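[job 4471] stage=fold_predict status=RUNNING
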Amino acid sequence: MAEYLTRDVVESVPLNTPITFIDSIPCNRGNVYYQGGGIFVLKGKTNNCFARYNVEFTGNIAIPTGGAVTPIATAIVVSGGARAGSRSITTPAAVDEYGNVTSRAVVDVPRGCCFTISVEYVSGVVDDPATTPTPAINVVDGSLSITRIA
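[job 4471] inference complete, writing C-alpha cells
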C-alpha cells in the first residue's frame, strides 16, 4: 500500500490538471512510483496476467473567491483518460465553501506494462453544455491511497 497526502495549505488546481501530492507512506516494493507533479506509475510486476490496484482519493474541494458557483468534480485519470465511474461531484452553495469528495477506481495493469494515474479536477457539469466550469478549484486535506489487491 502507498498513501500520499496533499499539502496542509490550500492548493489551486486548474481544470484538467493533476492534484499534487507529497510522500506519506511510499510503496517499498517498487509497484507504485511517484513521478511528481501529481503523476503516479503503477507497474504490472506479477506472475499472473495482470496486477490489480485499488485507487482511492478523498479530499476537500471548493470554488475559489471570484469563481462562479457551478458543480465541481474530481476523477481518477488512468493513462490520460478519466476512469468511468470515478468522477465525484459536489455543488457548493457559495465560493470558499468546501465539500468532501471521494473517487475510487480498480485498475488492472497487464503483466510487464505500466500505467500512469493521477487525480484531476474535471468538469462537474453533466447536464447543461452551456454552463462553463470554473477555471480552477481549491484543494486541501486530500489523501490518495493505492493498494495492490491482486
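[job 4471] summary: The chain has a mean pLDDT of 93.
[job 4471] exit 0
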